[in-house]
């Protein structure tokens, strides 16, 4: 009997994982360049500082993905008999917590500066013998920090869905929205140039609010996954129909009078228990082995399922809430 899959990903998904890794390394290289470029022209703008922090924080999800992708498919050990699949969820939690904490700090700092009516200034800089307003360097730096990220996010989104990897999906979703951060910071810089002192702090508060929102949303989803909630789609917008497919497959078997399934996410794969009421108890062991083979063939995400014959379905399994 095949109790669980030997490998976490089938061959075609392993190629998808290689592509996702390459994109994440490219993302890290790009973000390092954006962080370095923004640091060179940071000035005293609160919006620029917040945009710089956001790019710095954006390094956490790709690093978390690469680390979890390296270790989550390791074979189970005596100390960790269920394997290391939840490294994906732990990486998701760490990234979300960092985003939420830093976003909240930057939001408070921006609001305090707005209330205090601080008037930031952007000075001049001399480059190649020419002196000009530093804001003219800030604007292209912000453009570089926003636009390429959008294309990286769009490229990673379908890979995240194919891999059912929520860390990669969260990273892609954040990348796609990076242009909003860049645009808000550019408004703040231009506002300072026109003497609108509050534009900078307001833009910084808007960026901080977006960081905090992303952090809180991902933190909620990561905690729910670690609490073994019913599996959801990679976008967290609906319950994954796979559990119902597994239950329907078991209910179709001629020797099964009724079946209910409980599943939980372990990273990007599913573990679970199936309760079946056998109508014919003869050769039960062989029938369960055959049923398990059929269920594991339904979808690569069904990694390990325990099929237990019972006299009646447990009430907990019957209640979908």
Automatic annotation (TrEMBL):
Matches recorded under Pfam families: Cation_efflux (PF01545)
Transmembrane segments: 23-44, 56-72, 84-107, 127-152, 179-199
Subcellular location(s) per record: Membrane
Domain Cation efflux protein transmembrane span(s) in chain numbering: 28-227
Any GO molecular function: monoatomic cation transmembrane transporter activity
Keywords of the record: Membrane, Transmembrane, Transmembrane helix, Transport
Annotated membrane topology: Multi-pass membrane protein
Family: Belongs to the cation diffusion facilitator (CDF) transporter (TC 2.A.4) family.
Name under which the protein is recorded: Cation diffusion facilitator family transporter
């Amino acid at each position: 009997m095949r109790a669980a899959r030997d490998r976490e990903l089938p061959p075609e998904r392993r190629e998808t994982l290689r592509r996702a890794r390459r994109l994440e390394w490219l993302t890290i290289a790009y973000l390092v360049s954006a962080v370095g470029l923004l640091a060179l022209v940071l000035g005293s703008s609160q919006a620029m500082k917040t945009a710089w922090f956001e790019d710095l924080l954006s390094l956490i999800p790709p690093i978390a993905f690469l680390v979890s992708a390296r270790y989550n498919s390791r074979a189970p050990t005596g100390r960790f008999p269920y394997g290391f699949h939840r490294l994906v969820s732990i990486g998701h939690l760490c990234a979300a917590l960092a985003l939420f904490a830093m976003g909240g700090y930057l939001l408070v700092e921006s609001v305090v500066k707005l209330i205090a009516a601080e008037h930031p200034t952007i000075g001049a800089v001399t480059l190649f013998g020419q002196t000009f307003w530093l804001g003219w360097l800030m604007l292209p730096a912000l453009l570089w920090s926003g636009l390429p990220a959008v294309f990286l996010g769009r490229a990673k989104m379908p890979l995240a869905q194919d891999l059912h990897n929520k860390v990669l999906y969260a990273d892609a979703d954040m990348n796609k929205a990076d242009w909003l951060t860049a645009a808000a910071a550019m408004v703040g810089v231009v506002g300072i140039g026109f003497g609108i002192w509050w534009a900078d702090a307001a833009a910084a508060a808007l960026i901080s609010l977006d960081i905090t929102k992303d952090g809180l949303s991902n933190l909620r989803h990561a905690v729910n996954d670690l609490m073994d909630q019913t599996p959801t789609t990679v976008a967290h917008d609906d319950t994954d129909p796979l559990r119902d497919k597994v239950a329907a497959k078991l209910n179709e078997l001629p020797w099964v009078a009724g079946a209910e399934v409980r599943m939980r996410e372990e990273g990007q794969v599913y573990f679970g228990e199936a309760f079946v009421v056998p109508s014919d108890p003869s050769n039960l062991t062989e029938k369960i082995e055959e049923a398990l083979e059929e269920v594991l063939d339904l979808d690569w995400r069904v990694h390990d399922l325990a099929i237990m014959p019972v006299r009646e379905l447990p009430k907990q399994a019957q209640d979908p809430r």
